[in-house]
Amino acid sequence: MDKELPLGYSVKQYLSFQKDSSFFKKNDSSILENDKVMRLQLNDLRARIKAKIDSLVKVNNISKEFSKEMISYLSARIFSIKIDYFRLTKTFFTSGNMPESRFTDLVSCSNTIRTQNELKYYYNQLRDLTKFIIYSRGQIESIFDSASFQLFLHVVKDNFKGLVKNYLIADILYTALRNKVIGPTTAKMYANKECNNMIYKLVLTKIAERSGKLEKYASTKDGEFLLPFASKKPVTEDDLLKHYKSKLVLVDFWSSWCIPCRRELPLMIELKWQYTGKDIVFLTISIDKKFLEWQRANKAEKLSSEESFVMGTNDSVFVFKGNLIESIPRYLLFNKDGSLIDANAPSPGSQALKEMIDKYLKD
User: pLDDT, tens digit, for every residue of 12-31?
Assistant: First the structure.
C-alpha cells in the first residue's frame, strides 16, 4: 500500500480511502491482504496511544487504575473498529463466504479477557464476532431453530475460553429461550451443564423460571387496561383463540410508531365491516413498549375495545403461537379449529386475503 492512513481516521473513512485508491478489487486475496494492512495500522495506533497513557502515568497526571481503565476501553474500541470493518467489507467477497481466518486475532484477543470490568466493553462486539464466524462458514446469523442453536453453541465452545465463553453461552441460551427454540427446562439443563460462571447460571435459571409469564396480553375491554402482572389477570394467546373457537381469526400485529401499520388499520376496519355477521373475528395486537402510546393510538384509530390487545412483555422479541414476529405489519390467519392457515397472510386491502377468507369460511 503506497499511502499511509492518517491517524484518527474512522473505519468508514478508511474504507472510503481504500476504495478511492482502487485498493478494493473483486478479488478475495486482495481483500485479505488489505486486512493485514488494517491490522498493522490499528495495532500501531493502539501502541502509540498506550505509550501516551503510560507517559501520563509516569508524570503522575493520571493514576495507574485510571490508565488500566483507559487501556481496556482503547482495546475495546480497536476491537469494535475491526468488527465494523468486517461488517462493511463482507459483501466484497466474490465467494460469498468470509474466510474464518479473518477473525483469528479477534478470538485470541477475546480469550485474554479475564474480568467482568473488562468484559463490559465487549458485550455487543462478542455477539457480532460469533455471528461473523458462523457467517464465514456460509451459515445463518440468528438462532431460530434447534440446528442453529446447536451451531451457535458449537462455535462458541470451539473458539472461546473462560469468562467470554461463559458469557456467550449464557447469551445463546437466553436468545434460544426468548425465541422459543428451547423451553425453560432445557435452558436450565444447559445452564447447569455448560456454564461454569455461577452468576450467569443463576440469572439464566431465574429467567427460565419466569419465561412462561412472558406471553401475556393486555386488553382494552370495558375501557380498562389489564396490565401484565397487575391485579387483573392478562389473557394468553391460547385464551384468545379458545374464546373465538369455531371462527376464523385474523391477527394484525402493529405498533403506534409503525407508519405502514397505521396506514393499513383503516383497511382492516373496513374489511371487518364487510364480514359483519360472518364467522370471522379481527384482532389487533400491538407490540408497543409504552402503554400510554398504545392507548392514544388505539383511540385515534377507533379500534374495538374488545378485540384490541398489546403484548405484555418487556422483551424485544415477540412470539405468537410459535411464530416469531420479526417485522410489522404482520398478519396471521387461524382456522376455526385454532390451526394456523397462513403465518404471513396478505394485507387487509388485498384481494388475495379476501379470497383466502372466503375459501375457509365455506369449509
Answer: 444 444 444 343 344 456 66
